[in-house]
Each structure stands twice: as C-alpha cells, then as structure tokens.
TrEMBL record:
Protein's GO biological process: amino acid biosynthetic process
Any one GO molecular function term: acyltransferase activity
Name used for this protein in its record: Serine acetyltransferase
UniProt-listed InterPro entries: LbH_SAT (IPR045304), Ser_AcTrfase_N_sf (IPR042122), Serine_acetyltransferase (IPR053376), Trimer_LpxA-like_sf (IPR011004)
Coiled-coil boundaries: none
Endoplasmic reticulum in keyword set: no
Keywords per UniProt: Acyltransferase, Amino-acid biosynthesis, Transferase
Tree of life domain: Bacteria
Length: 251
C-alpha cells in the first residue's frame, strides 16, 4: 500500500507564519498586562488572529475572538496568583514587577494559559505554535493541553517538560530540568491519559522525572532532586535518592 504524502501549500506553511504567531503572542501578553495597549492595539491584535487562522486554513466562523477576549480577566487573575507564588517562594524575588518582567518561567506560564484557552475553543495548530515559541524563548515546554491550577511557580525555567495530559493542581512548585512525561511513546495511546497528576501543595526539585498517566503525586509531598518516579506517591511523602558523592580533604 502506497503512502500518500500530504500536500501543504506555500501559503499555509512558511517561516513567515511562525514569525506572525510570535508577534501575535507578544501582543497578547501586552494586552493582558496593559489596558491602554489593549485599547489602542486590540483591533490590530484581533486582525492578526484572523489572518493567522486564514493562513492555517482554519474556518474563522467557528473561532470566536469575543470568547477568547472575554477569557482575559480570568487568565490575568490566575497569572497574578502565579506571580505572587513566585514572589512568596523565591528568596531572590524582590517584587511582583521583577517576576512579571524578568522570570522566564512566568512568561512560559502566561503563554500556556493563553494557548490553553485557544485549545479549549477547539482551535488547532495555533496553540501549539504559541507554546513552541515560549519553549524556544524560555526553555520550558508546556503542552497547551495540560491542566494547570492556580499559584503555579516554575523556578529557574530551563529544561522543563510538561506533557499534554498532565494535571497540576494548586500551589505547585517545580525546578529546572523537571519532566512530567509519558512512560511509553505509542501513537495508539494518543487518546489516553499518558502523563502524571500532581496534587495540591507539591514541590518537585531539579531534574526529577515523573512518568506515567496513572501516577499521582499526593498532596503536600516533596520530590527531591534527580528522583525518577513511575509509581504513585502517597500524600505527605518526601522522596529522595541517596547521594554517591564522596568528600575528602586535599593533602
């Protein structure tokens, strides 16, 4: 049986489209945090939205800008909680302004919350393009299909992977290099829950790996650095690995 290659027209697939999505994403962030910008540039941002959908050959009639724009206050509410979680948790954070402007993890979360809303509106492709822009900019890869609750803090946003069916509840902190992934990579599992669930008030330290759709990290747990977990962890648990470091005095 011959494989038929899917034809993609130059009009619908180009690096220029990626550039347009990056500009659109930046404008959305500005609209969220600057009311004057939203009033002045709102119509232009809306225009870009429909032009991108047109380039992606997505039916504009089914994609409501009004529903997306109406979600901004709730997205901003969640982002304010995310920023406050960073300020409260990170000794290096001196102000909310610093978190808003200088924390790549916060930026990645902001793009996630916007792209997640678009995905909820059943808009294909565009949410993934937005999340990949944030990935390339911040080093944090959050699939827009993940479910993330309030007060989410990413400390040192480098090498983070959060898979499509991950569920993260409220007041969760993760550090650099954390992977919340699937235990197997099979196309037949696409419609199943492949990624873990993180309950409330969990801290996951650097380079920890948590794999599997049935895995639940119970609330109030602490997952130490370099841990690999493929089984459920009960609430109020601390998981660590023994260090193999040997310290001796120099002669």
């Amino acid at each position: 049986m011959k494989e038929v290659a899917q034809k993609v027209s130059v009009e619908n697939y180009s690096m220029c489209l990626r550039d347009a999505v990056e500009i659109f994403t930046k404008e959305l962030i500005n609209c969220l945090f600057d009311k004057n910008y939203q009033q002045e540039k709102g119509a232009a941002t809306k225009n870009k939205f429909f032009k991108i959908l047109e380039r992606l050959a997505i039916n504009n009639e089914d994609c409501s800008w009004a529903a997306f724009e109406n979600s901004f206050p709730e997205i901003r509410r969640k982002l304010d909680l995310d920023a406050f979680a960073a300020l409260k948790s990170d000794p290096a954070a001196k102000s909310l302004r610093e978190v808003y402007l200088a924390y790549p993890g916060f930026y990645a979360i902001a793009v996630y919350r916007l792209s997640n809303q678009l995905l909820k509106q059943k808009i294909p492709v565009l949410p993934r393009m937005m999340s990949e822009f944030a990935h390339s900019t911040t080093g944090t890869d959050i699939h827009p299909g993940a479910e993330i609750g309030d007060s989410f803090f990413i400390d040192h946003a480098t090498g983070i992977v959060i898979g499509e069916t991950t569920i993260i509840k409220n007041n969760v902190t993760i550090f650099q290099g954390v992977t919340l992934g699937g235990i197997q990579v099979k196309k037949s599992m696409a419609s199943t829950k492949r990624h873990p669930t993180i309950e409330n008030n969990v801290i996951i330290y650097a380079n920890a790996t948590i794999l599997g759709g049935d895995v639940v990290i119970g609330e109030n747990s602490i997952i130490g650095a370099n841990v690999c977990i493929t089984e459920t962890v009960s609430p109020n648990t601390i998981v660590t690995v023994e260090s193999n470091n040997f310290i001796t005095k120099r002669k």
